[in-house]
Amino acid sequence: MLARKGLLPNGFLLTRLAENQNQPKSTRTRAQRARFITKSGSCNVAHKNIREQGRFLQDVFTTMVDLKWQHSFLIFTSAFLCSWMLFAMVWWLLAFAHGDLEPRDPNGEPGPVPCVTAIHSFTSAFLFSIEVQVTIGFGGRMVTEECPLAITVLIIQNILGLIINAVMLGCVFMKTAQANRRAETLIFSRNAVIAPRNGRPTFMFRLGDLRKSMIISATIQLQVIRRTVTTEGEVIPVCQLDIQVENPLRSNGIFMVSPLVISHTIDRGSPLYEMSQHSLPTEDLEIIVILEGVVETTGITMQARTSYTPDEILWGRRFVSIITEEDGRYCVDYSKFGNTVPIRMPSLSAKDLDLTRGVQDSGNDAHLQGWGLVRAGRGGFRRGRGGGEGAQPWYASVHPPAQTQSEATQGILKGRHHQQGEPSAANGGERRGQKKTVTLEVIGRQMEEDSLGDISD
User: Fold this and answer.
1) Residue 316: CB partners within 8 Å, gap ≥ 6?
2) Please, are residues 359 and 374 in contact by the beta-carbon 8 Å criterion?
3) Partner residues linked to 359 by β-bridges
4) What Å distances lie between residue 243 and 339, 340, 349, CA to CA?
5) Are 189 and 206 in contact (CB under 8 A)?
6) How far apart are CA 139 and CA 137, in angstroms?
7) Quick one: which of 448, 457, 437 has its CA closest to 369?
8) Phi, psi of 414 (to 5 degrees)
9) Distance between CA 387 and CA 393 in Å, rounded?
10) Nearest Cα to Cα of residue 210 among 373, 23, 9
């Protein structure tokens, strides 16, 4: 789209071609899926059967600004022509009433002083009307002191001409300086991706700014629009749900110094929590992206929008890096702006992955299974969110019941006594024919192998 509008240099015309070649071919339905926001950011909603059309005339200026250019020029041209014709008729009537249009003998005596000199027909009255309103003043026609009414008409026409000029200039300025014009140089990736980040499935897309002038106080907002049904059976065709953008500052503010990959972690509070790779094509949802900020050069608040449908969300892919450091400065290669690479990722939803890892949903709290407790004693910190030694695991924020902790502690102590060869109740029970006690290290290893086998399947 940007290449067709001439906003991208010719070297970037192959950007979309290269992007499309690297994307997997997805099967699209024959019927085009309707969307609320188009890729260019315009609202794809048609308003029909509006009976109160007069409300638009109550705000004439906004209505004229919202009109297309051809309609605006038609209205402006009609306004000037109508005003010229109206006052031309007034000047002709004044000349006719005063007797200025009567034929006179050029060799005879001079007649009375006319209201406006050199008006002999309607054509000359029309030319005088144009001269008065646009202040040309060729000098052949002028108002005299003979008719005070002519002086009053001259004042009224000048005031009305200034009002028409002011409205026209204001509308043209607002149409050329609209905030959506700045949004034309903000680009979004054609596709969004879902890939693991820090051990969690993450929804991501890329955002870039082609201009060097920055967007001040830029904020990003994500909304999911989907069709929902309440418990009472009411169908809500447009249900808007906000989803949180990952930001270390715990806000939606971003610093648009270079293209950014905006991410949203799919956790339990996310509307995408139960979405898997197989259910993604059949999902009836639309993810809307809204970027708001202040233009640095003009100080005008702008807003850029786009949306992603399930057909435009790629599962198991990640954006390639486009920023390099050359000669002490960072360079951005926009030819790879939308390119992605495949990665290994299970097709399960985030909810199924949590169940597989050992997290159960019990009310508002999450409780760990035995595997999670045993895994914590067997190097679980190496599989944590940070991925480094000593980092917290993904279940570190969840506190199991006190009874379970004590039981796990006793079991670990029993395992240590058993490894050191010290006498314990387990050895004595084995001699008396009771069940054999197995160390927790063996249980953890067996549960880990079973869990990894389920994920690979």
Assistant:
1) 194, 195, 277, 342, 343, 344, 345, 347
2) no
3) 368
4) 25, 23, 17
5) yes
6) 5
7) 448
8) -60, -40
9) 8
10) 9
> Contact at 8 Å (CB) between 31 and 138?
no
Residue 29, number of CB atoms within 10 A of its CB: 8
The sign of the torsion formed by the CA atoms of 428, 429, 435, 441 equals negative
Which pair of tokens denotes residue 247?
A: 């930001």
Which residues make Cβ contacts (< 8 Å) with residue 35, sequence separation at least 6? 44, 286, 307, 309
- CB atoms inside a 10 Å sphere around CB 227: 11
How far apart (Å, rounded) are the C-alpha atoms in residues 201 and 92? Answer: 79
Lowest mean pLDDT among 21-30, 275-284, 371-380: 371-380
CA geometry: angle 443, 449, 454, nearest 5 deg? 125
Instruction: List, for residues 351-395, the tens digit of each pLDDT value.
Output: 999 898 775 444 444 433 333 333 333 333 333 334 444 444 333
75-125 per-position pLDDT tens digit: 999 999 999 999 999 999 999 999 888 887 777 677 788 999 989 899 999
What pTM value is reported for the model?
A: 0.60
Residue entry with tokens 């969004």: 192
Measured between alpha carbons, how far is 72 from 70 in angstroms, rounded to an integer? 5
Q: Residue 331 corresponds to which tokens in the numbers above?
A: 């360079």
Q: What is the mean pLDDT of residues 145-155?
A: 93
Neighbouring CB atoms inside 10 A of 448's CB total 14
What distance separates the 2 farthest-apart alpha carbons in the chain?
151
pLDDT of residue 161: 93
Q: For residue 73, list its beta bridge partners.
A: none
Contact 247, 305 (CB under 8 A): no
Q: What SS3 class is residue 347?
A: coil
Phi, psi of 132 (to 5 degrees): -70, -45
